[in-house]
Specification:
Helix 1 crosses helix 2. The chain is α+β, with helices and mostly antiparallel strands. The longest helix has 23 residues. The strands form three sheets. It has a seven-stranded mixed sheet with strand order 3-4-7-8-2-1-11. It has a two-stranded antiparallel sheet with strand order 5-6. It contains three helices and eleven strands; from the N terminus they run ββααββββββαβββ. The chain has one domain. The relative contact order is 0.17. A hairpin with a 2-residue loop joins strand 5 and strand 6.
């Protein structure tokens, strides 16, 4: 796996700082690629997922486990599966066409890395060729991020609700 940068995707939400990954030589982050591509195909589904991420998770409730219940090895896929009830909120996404892979940093409710994803065109992500490739990439990104957190290459800045390199820098290359 080539080198990638872990960078802030959105830090304006009240409860969550969202990160993404960008390949070293790429002009766009993986999350931006996902939203641009999917918006051109199905703007309604894309806006629904974006609202879940920025409004429901980012501003209203935080990255609680209920929203990250579609476990696929060491990452989760958004939107959540099944019927999700949190307080007075009830979410259900039957037959939702999109999957966006994500990692809750150490299962925290305030730090999430969003990767890429795609359209689920088969019964499983393995049967959805382009989605399966994004899943494999997301697993590898998550593995490197988890390893960097364990070995101290990445540290959590509790006060700023952000990740930093071991030397305090906001620039994180893995």
């Amino acid at each position: 796996m080539s080198t990638f940068e872990l960078e802030i995707w959105d830090d304006e939400a009240e409860k969550v700082t969202f990160y993404t990954v960008r390949w070293e030589d790429a002009s766009q982050s993986e999350t931006d690629k996902f939203f641009e591509t999917q918006n051109n195909i199905d703007a309604n589904a894309t806006q629904t997922l974006l609202s879940l991420i920025l409004d429901t998770i980012g501003t209203d409730y935080g990255a609680i486990g209920d929203f990250f219940n579609r476990f696929e090895e060491n990452v989760t896929a958004l939107p959540p599966q099944g019927r999700v009830v949190v307080g007075e909120l009830m979410l259900r996404y039957p037959n939702f066409p999109l999957r966006l892979y994500a990692l809750r940093i150490k299962n925290r409710e305030d730090l999430v890395v969003l990767f890429n994803g795609g359209r689920k065109t088969g019964g499983t992500n393995m049967e959805s060729e382009s989605l399966n490739m994004k899943f494999i990439e997301a697993k590898e990104f998550a593995k490197k991020i988890d390893q960097a957190l364990q070995d101290g290459s990445i540290v959590i800045d509790e006060e700023a609700r952000m990740l930093r390199s071991y030397n305090g820098s906001k620039e994180i290359m893995l």
